[in-house]
Write a structure and sequence with these properties.
Elements lengths: L2 H68 L14 H9 L7 H6 L4 H12 L14
Helix pairs in contact: 1-4
């Protein structure tokens, strides 16, 4: 073998080693990419779940706003001083309500209004579910 042939073989061997190293690095990068895509995918799922929860809360908030507008203080029904629905809701949610809320709720006069109030608040305040229900 000539010196030139040995030089070519050494060069080919070096290129082959470099190609193997690049191939190994490419595989490692592919694995890292796959891992990162998995992490991103899981984060996307978590964000989608959070977005859905936010949408559900917005729907509840809109329902509460609708009920509040329906039972606004400007209506004749709620202008009576003995009806304290907002305070009742706050006291109930804080566990401070010491009177039978169904009796006070019955003073609202409208079963439909009582039921809508109960529906609007029951998901965030499970105890308020009783507010719109009466035992006949």
């Amino acid at each position: 073998m000539t010196q030139k042939d040995e030089g070519f073989r050494a060069e080919i061997s070096r290129f082959s080693d470099q190609q193997t190293a690049w191939s190994d690095k490419a595989k490692a990068l592919e694995q890292e990419k796959s891992s990162l895509l998995g992490i991103v995918s899981e984060k996307d799922k978590a964000l989608a779940i959070q977005s859905e929860k936010i949408r559900a809360l917005e729907v509840q908030l809109n329902a509460i706003d609708d009920v509040q507008q329906e039972i606004a203080p400007s209506t004749e029904e709620l202008s009576q001083p003995h009806i304290r629905l907002p305070e009742m809701v706050e006291e109930w949610s804080e566990g401070e309500l010491d009177v039978d809320a169904r009796v006070q709720a019955s003073q609202l006069g409208s079963r439909r209004t009582r039921n809508r109030v109960a529906e609007a608040f029951s998901s965030s305040h499970p105890g308020l579910k009783r507010l719109g229900q009466r035992n006949y």
